[in-house]
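Why run this: before we spend reagent on co-expression, it is cheaper to look at a predicted model of the complex and decide which construct boundaries make sense. The entries below are exactly what would go into the expression plan.
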Amino acid sequence: MSLKYGVIGSGAIGGYYGGMLARSGEEVHFLFHSDYDYVKKHGLKIDSVNGNFKLPSVLAYNKSSDMPKCDVVFVCLKSTNNKLLKELLPPLLHQDTVVILIQNGFGLEADLQKDFPNLNIAGGLAFICSNKTGDGHITHLDYGKLNIGSYSCTDTNILEKVHSDFRQADIETHIVELYSARWMKLVWNIPFNGMTVVLNTTTDKLMTNINTDLLINQMMLEVIQAANRAGCSISESYADEMMDMTRKMTPYSPSMKLDFDSHRQLEIDYIYSRPIEEAAKNGYDMKYVSMLEKQLRFIEAQYLK
Amino acid sequence: MSLKYGVIGSGAIGGYYGGMLARSGEEVHFLFHSDYDYVKKHGLKIDSVNGNFKLPSVLAYNKSSDMPKCDVVFVCLKSTNNKLLKELLPPLLHQDTVVILIQNGFGLEADLQKDFPNLNIAGGLAFICSNKTGDGHITHLDYGKLNIGSYSCTDTNILEKVHSDFRQADIETHIVELYSARWMKLVWNIPFNGMTVVLNTTTDKLMTNINTDLLINQMMLEVIQAANRAGCSISESYADEMMDMTRKMTPYSPSMKLDFDSHRQLEIDYIYSRPIEEAAKNGYDMKYVSMLEKQLRFIEAQYLK
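The model came back. Tokens follow.
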């Protein structure tokens, strides 16, 4: 039995992973926003470090109400748009649909569950450098691993099937414990997203200055500390791994930096405020992270007037 | 007996206080740098909230070796230039000269004492909004109090005389305990200097955003905590006083913001690194302040290449 996939938010992340599944022969229904007309006519173009390809004809929609019910729905919106899910999701849902939130941050699944108490929810962690570089055009620069973990999805078979479909599509993927996985992702996302915005710079410049290199390491350790207080067991050496990985990366502007450059709303709630609240519940004050959050809120407020 | 005054660094601070003493009839010898030729010809112009005035002829020098020995020398250089004092000061010094460092930060007197082990050193704390707005032209926007405290000056009579000369010159002044006074000054200087640079803004904008308003208050409390660990007894309500005072202030760019705007070296060593070291000696980690220090070092390094 093959799964029917839906993608809500077909940009750098949704377009890439959905595109890879579609290329591999899966049935994938894509919800587009501004790119709809272009993709309907010209299809989807993916330039990837692993080889460029085109999908001349994709199952593209511009309204979720036109989409079929799907077995698995990937939500790849900016989390600043998650309030739209209450309206966007219902047409795609049947009794057993699993919704997988491939987004960064903490608290996403809990918020969605409040609106859909019986929904099967999972989370996805994308380790990827990928950007939307034009209409229907995605550029995949580096990495690509996608880890998936259940939040409230009790049917492990369907997650195993998703897992195997991704492997079939040449995507490295693992089934993970979601709570820890979300914190581990934040170890990288928290320092680099915010610091590239506040200092208006790129990852490589932060790593080659001894002051910001040290600060980023300290911030990573703060996130690890918060996670471990919450019951995870992330080794401090994970910060060193993340530092080494970033040193080897192509100079990179994280997604929040791109949002800042385009004067879009920043994903501060789920990447900063919710993890800070979660840490506080466990009696831990992430001071570096809180300072960064406040600086980001100031910066955003200056242009979102 | 009247004192012979010298001013090293006759800018926004030195030009103003020295100018006020000169207007009041004191003998004040000014060392100028780039403004020398202009001042020699046209004198010094001070536009002050308390009334504008001109000093058509001032005792101006462009080399300290041309200056007479003075009883009191005010050092009003940017602290980034304090390494020059080893050469600049000796011509002005007699056996009993008192050197008063009217500069922001911590550790200034200790560093100078290393180079001049027998020198009588005091510190000055200027509570003033004042800018150099042109050649030989100083604009005094607000406040003006100058507090003075001994570092290694055992002759209290001379400090009393300076004190009384300033009062004569319509400058509000107090003799204070220097160690505490330097920390108290940092309660304002640490958050506002750095935050206006990192967020490229002015004091009023930081105060009207709830996030940065809170962060600045937290940073002030961190400085107070560090001071108290070092033996001071500054009340936490002093932070509220500083917040209220700043709310009432004209929108202001602190001196570090002006240095940043002109791509000059920033006074990070004495305003950030030395207080951080002093706090660490007492077992206290000023996390917000350390983060700000590192962000400032990154920003400075990007333009001082």
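Chain B touches chain A at residues 198-199, 201, 205-206, 209, 211-212, 214-215, 287-288, 290-295, 297-299, 301-302 (CB under 8 Å). The beta strands of chain B are 4-8, 27-31, 44-48, 53-55, 59-61, 70-75, 93-102, 120-134, 137-150, 173-175. Bring this page to Monday's planning discussion.
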